[in-house]
Protein: Natural resistance-associated macrophage protein 1
Amino acid sequence: MYFLIEAAIALSVSFFINLFVVAVFGQAFYQQTNQAAFNVCANSSLHDYAKIFPRNNRTVDVDIYQGGVILGCIFGPAALYIWAVGILAAGQSSTMTGTYAGQFVMEGFLKLRWPRFARVLLTRSCAILPTVLVAIFRDLRDLSGLNDLLNVLQSLLLPFAVLPILTFTSMPALMQEFANGWLSKAITSSIMALICAINLYFVVSYLPSLPHPAYFSLVALLAVAYLGLTTYLVWTCSIAHGATLLAHSSHQHFLYGLPEEEKKREPSA
Structure:
């Protein structure tokens, strides 16, 4: 019950924060043109930033940098710093999640026993050093473009994180009484399919912005490998969810806990 309450509170707070962000951005950017954004910033205390918006009637193309600037122009300089702190906190949160996972792998699978400060120094350096180098040697436009690229990559990697979780949490031999029930399987699978479809849409939308047509051949080769791996994960996940017809001899272990396998393991009377 404690973990349920803790998760509910954390997710509720996160939901309302994201709701406020979406609402504020909707108010600031919905049907906003570059000229309108320029005029807003030119007439504010942050008028020096107005030049980042072209003076035309095209819809403003918002990134992290422009988003913070226009928020500061509309709601005051305090909003600019609040946005910066929020971006920093979000980056630290995601970075800590990844680096903690790396630490657990290092400690468990590799059986390495390093002092805590050494683990933190190594994992944080691996996580933040590339960003620091880009921030030092490139400009803000490159950072914003890098963020868009990272979002696309995270969208591509999502199935490799979600599908194994759904697979293993649906195996009673591993999860015992905590294994997903049929209702939970249906709901989580539907949500996963919807999220992956949305992310796939954004990935496809990002492809036309590739700088050179030669990249498309590389993308095509990677897409074949990606779709093959994703298909394999969907296949094994379907087996764990009860699709016994898809199981072959080398994948019988994904049937752990299903009635057919339980009957086979029961001793004959």
Remarks:
- Confidence is low (pLDDT under 50) at residues 257-263.
